Structures are given as structure tokens and as C-alpha cells.
Amino acid sequence: MKILIFLLNFTLLILKLTYAQINAAQSNTEQINAEQVNAGQTNIEQINTEQINTEQINTEQINAEQANEKCIPINQLLEREPSFDCCKESGITCSNDGRVTKIDINVNFSNTDEAGNIIKDKNHYIPPGFGNYTDLTYLSIRSDDINGIIPPELGNLTNLEYLYIYGDKLVTTIPPELGKLSKLSYMYIHGKNISGNLPPELGNLSSLQEMFITRNSITGPIPSSFGNLSNLKTMVIDQNSLSGEIPPELGNLTKLERIDLTNNTLSGSIPLEFRRLSKLKNLDLDSNDLIGSIPPELGNLASLKTLDLSSNYLVDSIPPELGKLSKLEKLILSENKLTGSIPPELGKLSNLKTLNLANNNLSGSIPKKIKEMDIKLNVSNNPLINTENSSSSLSYIGIAVVCVLVLITILGLIYLKTKKKIYESGGSKSKLLLLPKSSGNKQVYNSSGSKQLYNSSGSKQQISNNSLKQ
Q: Where is the chain membrane-spanning (predicted)?
């Protein structure tokens, strides 16, 4: 019995030990699994962090590459390294996210290498890639060394508000694509070798306020489409070779304050439609081939300060209606074929400072009111103009000169008369005047004034009417 109880207790002990081992094994297994899980999670997190860092590096590289790609056209023009950050360049403005918004380049390039040797035929051109700067609002390129063309791609700069291009080495035409710049308010284009016609597409620049196309070699007519530039205040297309008539459509530009078309070969008459330009302050049409008469309707331009119609072929008389231009300061009508008299109404121009009517065929006299004005007046080379009784300073100078000449003549006559009396007072008796001796000789004058020389022996020598130095 005792043996049976012992066996049962021993069996229970073995079962307990086995159960304890099993529990310990399970605990170890769970611990190992937990460690493995934690290790796996750590590895996963580390891998994710490395992936994030890699992606960040890749993003920065992509952004840097994109930034350098945007700078390529600018770096090409300025001869910089392709990788140079153009946003650090003077005259270049970029937004916070690296977009180029302003380009202001005024530079002259060196035509020598590092050793000082001259590089012939070195080209500096505006790259077509400038058309990719679609965020650009301001573009100014000024250089005597830039050649090539004005890229048509500039027409893609739909946000551009200011355009200034200057270069005497540019050999190009004005691209019609510039007519797509709907936000452009200022345009300046100058280069003595820029030729071709004015593109009619420029008439689509609905926001344009200032137009300067000056000192080029532009030919052909002014497009009638320019009459659509409803916001234009200044139109300067001077010193070109424009021909044809001035389009009457320009009379639609009621905001215009200045028109300058000087030094072209424009023909025809001055458009009557200009009478609608009530805000016009300066009208310069000189040095063209305009014909016909001066429109009296110009007298309605109440804001006008300068009217220059000189060096044309204008005929007929000066309209008295010009006397209504109360703000006028300069009236220049010289070098025409004007006839008739000078309108006295011009004497009402209280702000006038310059009146030039020279080289015409005017007749009559200068109106009294005009003579009394404190102005620069030029009426020269008008053969039928009567300038008598003029109060000009030239008349006073002429009178003074005549008086001086008369006085000199009177004094001369008095002197001659007195001298004659002195000679006559000696009668026929010879009167000798002894002079100091010189080398044994002596000079005397007789009553007839002839010079005689007596030597030491007393003989007489005649020396008058010679070129000898006496």
C-alpha cells in the first residue's frame, strides 16, 4: 500500500515538473517572438526612414535640376556656367519658389579671351528659351553687343507688362507674335538695323499705354489696326522710314497725350480725325512729306502744348483757329510753303514761348501783339514779310551802326580840312624840317611833303615812292 502511494506521488511530481517545463518553454517562445517582432518593427521603421531620406534627397536634386534648367537661357546670354543659380544674378528677380519674374540686363560683353586675345565674330543673342519664363512681368535687355533676332518665342510671355529691347547690332524684324502680350503696358524697341514693317498684330495690345519704336529702319505704313490701342497715351515712332498716309483711325485713341512721328517719309494730309484727341499735349509731325493745308480743327485741341509741323510741304495760310490753343508753348511751322499773312490771333497765345515761321512764303507785317510778346520769334526767309517799324533789337543795332559810321565820317572830314590849312599856311616858301643825324646823313621834308636825304657832302637823294624801310 505504501508502495502504491509512493508511486502515485512520484507520478504527480513528474507531471508537475513536466507542466512547469512546458510553461517555461512557452514563455521563452513568446519572449523570443516578441523580440523578433520588435526587431522587425525596428528594421521596418529604419527602412522607412531611409526611404524618406532618399526621397527627400531625390526631391532636392530634382528641384535643383529644375532650377538650373530654368536658368539655362539666362546663363547662355550672360556667359555663365550652366549650373549657376541665376536668381543670385544682379538684375534677376525670382519668386520664393524659384520662378523668374523680372529680367533687367544692361551689359556690354568682352570680346577678348582670358589671355587678352580678341575673339572675332563673337555672338551674343537672346536665346529662344526666354519664351519659357511665363511668370515674367518685366523684361529689359540693353546691350550694344547683342546681335541676332528678337525671338518670336517672347510672344509666350503672357504675363509680361514691361518690354524694353535695345541693340544696334540686332538684325531682325519685329515679330508679330508680340501681339499676343495682352497684359503689356510699356514697349520700347530700338536698333538701327531693325527693319521690316510694323506688324498689324501689335494693334491687339489692348493694355498698351506707352509705345516707343524709335531710331530703327522700319519701313511701310502705320497699320490702321493701331487705332484699336484704346489705352495708348504715348505713340513715338520717330526716325524710321515709314511711308504712306497717317491712318485716320488714330483719331480713335482718345487717351493719347503724345504723338511723335518725326523724321519719316509719311505723305498725305494731316487727318481731320485728330480733332477728337482732346487730351493731346504734343503733336510732332515734322520732317515728313505731308501736303495740304493745316486743319483749322487743330484749334480744338485745348490741351496742346507743342505743335511742330515743320519741314513738310504744307500750303495755304496759317489758320487763325490756332489762336485758341491757350496752353500752347511751342508753335513751329517753318520749312513749308505757307502763304498769306500771320494771323493776329496768335497774339492771344499767352503761354507761347517759341514761334518759328521761317522759310515760308508769308506776306504782310508782323502783328503788333506778336511783336510785343516776350518770345523767341523767327520769321526769317519770308521774302514778302514787312519787318519795318519792328521793335526788335536788330533794328536798334542797325541804327547804332549807322550813327557810328556817320560820326567817323564827320571827324575824318574835319581832320583833313585842318591838315590842309596847316600846309597852306607856309605859302610857296620851302620849309625844311631837320631830323636827327644817322650815319652822317640827315632827313628833311620840304613843303610839298616829299622826303629828301642829304649826305655829308651836301648832295640830295630822292627816296620817296619806294618800298624801302625808312
A: 394-416
Please give the helix or strand (H or E) that residue 140 lies within, else none: strand 138-142
328 and 303 Cβ atoms separated by less than 8 Å: no
Structure-block grid coordinates of residue 148: 541676332
Is 326 in contact with 350 (CB distance < 8 Å)?
yes
Tell me which amino acid residue 12 is.
L
Per-residue model confidence (pLDDT) at position 2: 60
Q: What is the CATH number of domain 74-108+125-392?
A: 3.80.10.10
Q: Give every residue of the chain whose pLDDT is below 50, as ranges.
A: 32, 37, 44, 47, 52, 54, 57, 59-64, 389-396, 427-470
Q: Which amino acid is at 78?
A: L
Domain ranges of the chain: 74-108+125-392, 393-420, 426-470
Residue for cell digits 527693319? Answer: 195
Give the rounded distance of the alpha carbon of 11 from its chain centre.
Answer: 117
Look up residue 55 and give its three cell numbers: 526621397
Distance separating the N- and C-terminal Cα atoms of the chain = 191
Give the model's pLDDT for residue 108: 78
